[in-house]
Amino acid sequence: MLKGAQRAEYYWEGAPGTGASLASALRGWEHLRYEVTEDPGPGADGGRWLHTPDLGIFFAQTDAVGNIVIPEDRLRSALELAGTNVRELHRELRLVLGQAWDDELEPFRHASDMNSIVWLHNVG
Question: The organism sits in which domain of life (predicted)?
Fold first, then answer.
């Protein structure tokens, strides 16, 4: 983790679009790592905004249970860019899913006073 860093978590409720407003307001603080989640509602999609100082901001639309929804055109673009190169397709799909942001933010998601970090290592 980061020496001297602080962690905060805040549950919020607001009108559709509030998540985008929160993420935009936080974006001015480039040194912050943050995640804003807006649940879907009647007539409004949900969304996730992830930010790290190194990667910048990532946005993804989400469904009713929080899964990222990838638009058809973005999938077609990934397939076209990758061609027959399987490694490039994996890279494109990881980009579409925001994998780099998830990887960087994951240790911070579990680092509260009530939760200790347990590092698991792949063996075998």
Answer: Bacteria
| pTM exceeds 0.85 for this model | no
In one letter, which amino acid is 7?
R
For residue 4, being part of any structural domain is answered with no
Q: Which domain holds residue 29?
A: 18-109
Residue 15 CA to its chain's centroid (Å) = 21
Q: What are phi and psi of 57, to 5 degrees?
A: -105, 145
Instruction: Read off the pLDDT of residues 24-69 as tens digits, 9 standing for 90 and up.
Output: 999 888 899 999 999 998 888 899 999 999 999 999 999 988 899 9
Contact predicate 1/111, CB 8 Å:
yes
Q: Does residue 60 contact residue 98 with C-beta atoms inside 8 Å?
A: yes
